[in-house]
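Listing S7. Sequence submitted for prediction.
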Amino acid sequence: GIGGREDSTNVIRNSLVSCIMNISFDHTDMLGDTIEQIAYEKAGIIKPNQPVIVYPAMDPAALEVIKAEAEKQNAQLVLPDVNSIKTEHKGQFCDVLYYKDFVINQSFAGQHQSYNAAVVIEAATALNDSGRFVITKQNITDGIQKAEFPARIEIFSKQPLVILDGGHNLDGITALKNVLQTNEVKNLTAVWASLSDKQPELLIKEMAPFIRKLYTVDIFGSRAVPKAQLADMAKKYIDDSQAAQSLEDAVCKAVEHGEDLLVFGSLYLASDARNIIINKLNNK
């Protein structure tokens, strides 16, 4: 199962709180090809008489579908006020979240992560209010500050910069772009792979302003675009684009030459690349 309504996790029928995060176009072959259809599937996790917390910057059309399902289930809908969520940029990949009476040094960079954290705060508050748990303000603060999310704009090194990101659709790439722009990152050496159903040409066009040199690589699966095809596609936007001999070879060349490196485009790629990056940096 995938998406919410038919997801395997939805066998839990007595959950105390549900959270619906940002909704974008993905898995459209299963979830539908409009934002409303996808939202309908996501809203399938809402439980009768239990609160649902919604991503603050939710698409308006998706929000209307979620509101309708919440009303149908007599579920309290909690929508954090997007204007009350402030992110202060304190240095390279260092952001501070201000929301209600919380001031939190975030472990993740980006405005979208502040929105995610606001959902976490509201969900933890709802669980505390249920009387089934005791969750203090300090618990929430510590949890957000110590949270880890491998392969999601994961920073392995700042000098040189080494970033791994498994974002594979336009929503994920937009989040990555915003973080790079906020932190004034450019002239990257990048390693990229993509699946055919993820609009690869649009994704590399969006990322091109941040990339000086691009290596394309193969990944497992019948939907993967061959690295030579990706390289030809990318040359329209990045002059120095070439198919790499291998993922390991591309990563090693960048690290050995001290280049700022970004590996991105697929969770399949991130899974393979993460160990290579860690081993190479440790043995440098």
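Caption to Listing S7: primary sequence and predicted structure tokens for the chain studied. The chain has a mean pLDDT of 93. Residues 111-129 form the longest helix (19 residues).
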